[in-house]
Amino acid sequence: MNKHLIIAGAFCATIFSSCNQKENIKSIIVKNNLDFERSHETVELTKSLLNVEDLNTVGIKNAETGTLQVTQTVDTDGDGNMDEILFQPKIGANSETTYQIVTITEAEKPKAEVLCYSRFVPERTDDYTWENNKVAFRVYGPVAQKMVEDGVPGGTLSSGVDAWLKKVEYPIINNWYKKNSERPGAYHEPSPEGLDNFHVGSSRGVGGIAVKEDTIYHISKNYTKWKTITTGPIRTSFYLEYETWQAGNKSIKESKIISLDLGNNLSKFTTFIEGTDLISAGLTLHEKDGEVTGNTERGWLSYWEPHGDSEIGLAIVAPEHTFIDFETYDTEAKDLSNAYAHLKVHNNKVVYYAGFGWKESGQFTNSKDWEDYLDKFSQQINTPLEVSLKN
After folding, report:
1. Mapped to the 3 state alphabet, what secondary structure does 363-379 carry?
2. β-pairing, 250-261 with 245-247?
3. 215 and 81 in one domain?
4. Whether residues 145 and 34 fall in one domain
5. Is residue 200, in this structure, part of any structural domain at all?
6. What's 225's domain CATH number?
7. What PROSITE patterns does the annotation carry (predicted)?
8. Is residue 221 within 8 Å of 145, Cβ to Cβ?
């Protein structure tokens, strides 16, 4: 008799536990307040928001379709524990979608290729390079700088941002550097994957910064320290640090986190800066045969120009409380002509986005397509997707 009671009690406890777990399933609601569909914006969910101990066992499921979403966990502070989980929801115009937060195993997670990738490149002096499925970039380190200062061929002295013109969805960084190590300069030649024919020199390239004092733009030298934060199917991000540099009488201390998300043509630059309350993010004018346009209200600056046998658009986009105005700086000095977006520094930090769209990639056919993209991108960063937790 007692044995039967024990078994019955255990059975009831199991049923109660199962029901209780179902009742405690968390859900999030993602809301789009704009009048167009949004599908390549990254939602960041923290461990504290979800109230979970281990993000590695978290799955995100569309409550309507039951489809598990592709996710990526990120250790933002480098302590070995994951702090955020990322995913990119697809939300219709002026609508919302509910996602359930579920517990899953590693085997149950949706598989996705690592398309958002970055790394330090010691085999090519000390570049740092990053890419996603649309675009690729690189910046230059202290070895490349010292080579120039010591008169050694092959160095680069620049804090500008280089654009690598890819026209394929898959990663090209490792392939291009491998080709270049086998035959120096190979990635400068056209291929089915694209090419590197974008000149940076001492210009700002695609989003390098300057500090203006009187009528002169002052710039830093190459980055001195780097650290990869994450790579994955949704985002790559990394940290760069610079030696303190001078802008007239101002001593400028600069570091930054750069990130690039899946499906985006613009990298996010989170710049930590001391010594100035205003910076200028620049776009190289190359041969000065393109058109500088901008929209101060929307917070973007664009330069659309002929490029080789094609055309390319460069851009800076910043939040409305950050973007002040823009100007075209034209000088006879080599590589120093740039279009500049003037950006307000808030509490020693400024956030902006910079990138490009190459006509050859098939994404943009003319400057209007490019500017329409910038308009939408601006609306997205100024009206982010709203996330709320629903128990």
Report:
1. CCCCHHHHHHHHHHHHH
2. antiparallel
3. no
4. no
5. yes
6. 2.70.98
7. PROKAR_LIPOPROTEIN
8. yes
Residues 104 and 136 in one domain: no
Within this chain, do residues 48 and 189 fall inside the same structural domain, yes or no? no
Among residues 197, 207, 190, 235, the alpha carbon closest in space to that of 75 is found at: 235
Amino acid found at 102 = V
Query: Is 71 in contact with 29 (CB distance < 8 Å)?
Result: no
Tokens of 162: 């280089």
Contacts of 319 by beta carbon, 8 Å cutoff, 6+ apart? 299, 351, 352, 381, 382
pLDDT in tens, 64-98: 999 999 999 999 999 999 999 999 999 999 999 99
Which amino acid, 388?
Answer: S
Q: CB–CB of 291/370 below 8 Å?
A: no
Token pair for 223 = 């980055």
- Whether 279 maps to a domain, the answer reads yes
Digit-coded pLDDT (tens) for 245-289:
999 999 999 999 999 999 999 999 999 999 999 999 999 999 999
**Structural domain of residue 62, as residue ranges?**
25-110
Cβ-contact 101, 68 below 8 angstroms: no
pTM for this model (two decimals) = 0.92
Query: Which of 110, 125, 142 is at the close of a domain?
Result: 110
Same-domain status, 200 and 284:
yes
